[in-house]
Backbone:
């Protein structure tokens, strides 16, 4: 007579059926976790705990792992039947001393009934009675000689026995879980290490880019060229503040050398071994400034194909020079103020808060107090930046500095052009010293470069800007220029004021402010003549 599987199964005792079921489950789990990808381990462990709970006819099954201080076990994976609370966190040596002494020796703790617990386990008995635990087994989670935590099995509705054969298999299950969790931790550590290496690589590449930009500046002096009392006073202030981390605001007309002053302060500071990082706030559209300052994550906006490290992150441990700070939009001023206050920021599209030790030097040729009165610059940001102001006087106020600057530029351009010039007529030098230089040192430099080009002998031939014929448009008032510019923007946007790409956004104004200026300038939607 042939026996079917069902007939054989029906003839087995309940304990043998349970053992066969659990043996099959254990074999399946061992096979599944061997090549399971690390990112699926947690999900599969949760599923396995549910199957084990059902197979053993218990009420909950949990995994608790050590925290960093190795003093507390925190539940990381758990399953409980409906109506049963998950396993609570355990604090070893403090709350569970009797359990702890055995688990630290990687010995299982088996309780068929609270009556089985010895007198020295009074704390554990009280815990079980409080939690309603009638029977339990705590299996050390150990692998590769490391004690990671415990796997807990608990029956709350009725007692159950834990025969030695079952405990042996639960120990095997603990090894399977421990190996899987160790492999997951190792892969995560590798990913973290790779991410840190990639971040460092990106940072080094970006720093190298900015270092090359610093080197490619049109001219870099070891210090300001000049001998006037005014420039000596400015340099003295720079030396006083350079060795501190105080925020510096450099003020001065265009071409006076504000970036050169920032470079000098950085070179004299304790941060000089790291490259100075620079951002021209007026050279970028408002929608890109945030990304340049704080960086962005991949996919955070259209066109963000790769992660980008921002200037604040690059300048960690160094100096960040924010040129033309007065051109920042009000929205960006708010974000910059928060970073200056908290010294923390997030990349665009990111959730991680990044701390950065940055010394900020800002510069502008605008009258920030007037900008505050016009509602174009925040007064709280002004006071945050204006801790130590340095005002660079225009070149016309320090004519004594013109001769040494002239000779510095002559030597520089002669070296580049392979020329020899050893004299300048007194009349030419007087003319250079008496010219008002609206473009300051930058204009002087351009004038000398042009003079070196046209000079054919050894005496510099100077053609001052005032002697050149310049076709100028008729002078217009500031109001007329503003009105014309607003009209141009309105026509470009087809008179759309609000929303993304609207005239208000392009102009960096609030829609209500733009509408007020349209009323003030008498701008209406009519064809321009």
Residues:
């Amino acid at each position: 007579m042939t026996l079917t599987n069902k007939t054989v199964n029906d003839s087995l005792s309940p304990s043998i059926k349970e053992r066969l079921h659990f043996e099959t489950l254990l074999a399946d789990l061992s096979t599944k976790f061997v090549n399971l990808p690390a990112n699926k381990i947690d999900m599969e462990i949760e599923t396995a705990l549910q199957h084990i709970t059902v197979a053993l006819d218990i009420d909950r099954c949990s995994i608790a792992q050590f925290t960093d201080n190795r003093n507390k076990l925190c539940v990381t994976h758990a399953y409980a039947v409906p109506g049963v609370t998950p396993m609570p966190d355990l604090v070893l040596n403090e709350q569970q001393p009797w359990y702890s002494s055995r688990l630290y020796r990687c010995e299982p703790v088996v309780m068929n009934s609270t009556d089985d617990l010895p007198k020295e386990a009074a704390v554990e008995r009280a815990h079980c009675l409080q939690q309603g635990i009638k029977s339990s087994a705590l299996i050390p989670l150990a692998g590769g000689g490391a004690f990671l935590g415990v796997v807990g099995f608990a029956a709350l509705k009725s007692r159950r026995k834990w025969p030695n054969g079952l405990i042996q298999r639960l120990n095997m299950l603990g090894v399977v879980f421990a190996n899987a969790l160790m492999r997951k931790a190792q892969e995560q550590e590798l990913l973290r290490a790779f991410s840190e290496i990639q971040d460092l690589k990106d940072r080094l590449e970006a720093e190298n880019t900015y270092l090359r930009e610093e080197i490619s500046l049109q001219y870099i002096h070891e210090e300001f060229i000049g001998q006037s009392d005014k420039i000596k006073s400015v340099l003295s202030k720079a030396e006083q503040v350079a060795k501190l981390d105080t925020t510096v605001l450099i003020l001065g007309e265009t071409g006076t050398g504000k970036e050169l002053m920032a470079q000098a302060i950085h070179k004299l500071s304790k941060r000089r071994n790291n490259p100075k990082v620079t951002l021209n706030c007026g050279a970028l559209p408002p929608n890109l400034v945030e990304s340049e300052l704080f960086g962005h994550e991949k996919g955070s906006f259209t066109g963000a194909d790769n992660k980008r490290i921002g200037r604040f992150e690059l300048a960690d441990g160094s100096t960040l020079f924010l040129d033309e700070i007065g051109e920042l939009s009000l929205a960006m001023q708010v974000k910059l103020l928060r970073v200056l206050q908290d010294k923390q920021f997030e990349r665009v599209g990111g959730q991680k808060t990044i701390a950065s030790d940055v010394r900020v030097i800002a510069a502008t040729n605008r009258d920030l107090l007037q900008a505050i009165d016009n509602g174009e610059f925040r007064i709280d940001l002004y006071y945050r930046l204006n801790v130590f102001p340095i005002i660079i006087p225009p070149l016309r106020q320090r004519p004594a500095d013109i001769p040494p600057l002239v000779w510095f530029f002559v030597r520089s351009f002669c070296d580049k052009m392979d020329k020899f010039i050893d004299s300048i007529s007194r009349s030419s030098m007087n003319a250079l010293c008496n010219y008002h230089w609206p473009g300051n040192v930058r204009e002087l430099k351009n004038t000398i470069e042009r003079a070196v080009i046209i000079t054919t002998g050894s005496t510099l031939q100077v053609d001052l800007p005032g002697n050149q014929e310049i076709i100028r448009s008729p002078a217009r008032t500031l109001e007329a220029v503003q009105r014309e510019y607003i009209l141009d923007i309105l026509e470009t946007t087809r008179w759309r004021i609000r929303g993304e790409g609207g005239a208000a956004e392009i102009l960096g104004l609030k829609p209500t402010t733009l509408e007020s200026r349209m009323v003030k300038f008498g701008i209406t939607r009519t064809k321009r003549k």
About this structure: The first helix runs from residue 5 to 11.
